[in-house]
Amino acid sequence: MLTLLIGLPLLGALAILLFPATKAKLVALWGAGIPLLWNIWLFSQFDLGNSSFQWGESAAWLPVLGLNYELGIDGLGLLMVALNTLLTWIAIYSARPDVERPRLFYSLMLMTSSVISGAFLAQNFLLFFLFYEACLIPLYLLINIWGGERRSYAATKFLIYTAISGALILVGGFGLLWLGGAEDFSYAALAETNLSLQWQVLLLVPFAIGFGIKVPMVPLHTWLPDTYVAASTPVAIMLGGVLAKLGTYGLLRFGFSLLPDGWAVIAPWIAIWAAMTIIYCAFLAIVQRDIKRMVAYSSVSHMGYVLLGTAAGNDLSLSGCIAQMVAHGLVLAILFNLVGLIEAKVGSRELDQLNGLMNPVRGLPFVSATLLLGAMSSAGIPGLVSFAAEFAVFQGSYRVFPWQALVGIVGTGLTAVYFVILLNRTCFGRLDNQRAYFPKVSFNEKAPALVLVIVIIALGVQPNWLFRWSEPTAIQAIEIVPGTQTVTLEDMGDLLLGDASSATPLLD
């Protein structure tokens, strides 16, 4: 059942090679759409009362190395795979019709989606590592072949940083196996290890740095702006919307859950790291003149919220950080899609050359309106997907790390600052008479943004559709971490409605 989520995109990638180049995009859309529909069906069959992994699959592969083909899914994995399949379809649909070497391009996109799903589904550390590293090859080619200026530099930088990330994670995984005396790399076996506090803290160092590169966190973020800016719009959507989630997913799955005592020790430092990332990258976003680079730095800043919620380690903060991972992916996808449309229609991404796009006759009113909605969601405006996620992260983190949570709240204010700058410069003001009329945006170009708008508003108006999947995983995770307490969705509802007296306290 779960193997289909990995195999169907691969079959689609192979099928593309059997069709002419003119049909490559259509075949790719089917190759991405069928796994998306399958994932939606899995939502209907998922048992919310069961917080353990469901639909497990297992087959011996290389038992002598501790490597077996083991898959399973919980609420966290289900949401991440759903995000991956949705954004893969969005990315493929948003690709330009005149993309060069289309069969290779779309095949690599589907291969990327397949291995990312594999990483989210893997229940064996070594299998996870193989999928984690396999992302590197297709993404390197996608950046280096179809990227913009300085694409070779950006692709090489991405390759080096990702290789270092993988090496550090592998060190942590082998340390878990050898020092813990586990029989193999299966998640269940690693979870039964009983390491001393000193060893747990020591093993968390390579995990934190390795996954911190992928997130990325300051000062390990320097590969990201160059890579996101050089990548084409579909590839940027996959990089920021999905790939970055492997970093926070890995910290939750292998750091927080498998090394709970050590995590409790380093959590204050993780929270400080998150606060630094939020503020530093928010200020970097403010001073950017390239709107794509501004969105890239915004992405790093908002991933800091996820790390802050993970550091706090209670049910509410963990539910919030899982929801924030989804919200971040959706918002970043619509922002990159719209930035790509602006660049295609106007021919520039520079703030100094953009103005008046909200003009209903000669401008890009649809793009401007949806860009405004994306910016509002990123800033945490109520009624949009990011609000409830960020609220849960801050509310869950405040009682544990109050100063870091306050810094995060300041970060949301800075988000409003740089997006007001972006919107004021691009959407408002007088339209330049020298570029008086821009090409119209067709319905096919609007479709990806329209789909994302619907999802962003729907999950913002009804956040329980998102939180109900993350809560069982959060509760299961905190049961093994010292000093944590359960806060249910009912408590969160009381907090949102202002009735704090009936809510369960976050700490004793």
Show the helix and strand layout.
Elements (H helix, E strand, L loop, with lengths): L2 H14 L7 H22 L8 E9 L4 E7 L1 H19 L8 H20 L3 H10 L1 H11 L4 H30 L6 H5 L5 H18 L8 H8 L2 H11 L1 H12 L3 H27 L4 H22 L2 H32 L18 H14 L6 H14 L3 H25 L16 H19 L2 H15 L10 H9 L11
Helix pairs in contact: 1-2, 1-4, 2-3, 2-4, 3-4, 3-11, 3-15, 3-20, 4-5, 4-6, 4-11, 5-7, 6-7, 7-9, 7-10, 9-12, 9-13, 10-14, 11-15, 12-14, 13-14, 13-18, 14-15, 14-17, 14-18, 15-16, 15-17, 15-19, 15-20, 16-18, 16-19, 17-18, 17-19
Overview of the molecule:
The chain has helices at residues 3-16, 24-45, 75-93, 102-121, 125-134, 136-146, 151-180, 187-191, 197-214, 223-230, 233-243, 245-256, 260-286, 291-312, 315-346, 365-378, 385-398, 402-426, 443-461, 464-478, 489-497, and strands at residues 54-62, 67-73. It is mostly helical and 508 residues long. Helix 9 runs parallel beside helix 13. 70% of the residues lie in helices and 3% in strands. The model is unreliable at 483-489 and 500-508 (pLDDT under 50). The longest helix has 32 residues, at 315-346. It starts with a helix and ends in an 11-residue tail after the last helix.
Element string (H = helix, E = strand):
HHEEHHHHHHHHHHHHHHHHHHH
Spatial order of the strands forming the largest sheet: 1-2
| Helical fraction | over 70%
Shape: globular
Low-confidence stretches: 483-489, 500-508
Number of strands: 2
Instruction: Write down the overall mean pLDDT.
Output: 88
Give the count of helical stretches. 21
| End-to-end gap | 42 Å
Largest sheet: 2 strands, antiparallel
Query: C-alpha Rg, in Å?
Result: 22 Å
Note the beta-strand portion.
under 5%
- The class by helix and strand makeup works out as mainly alpha
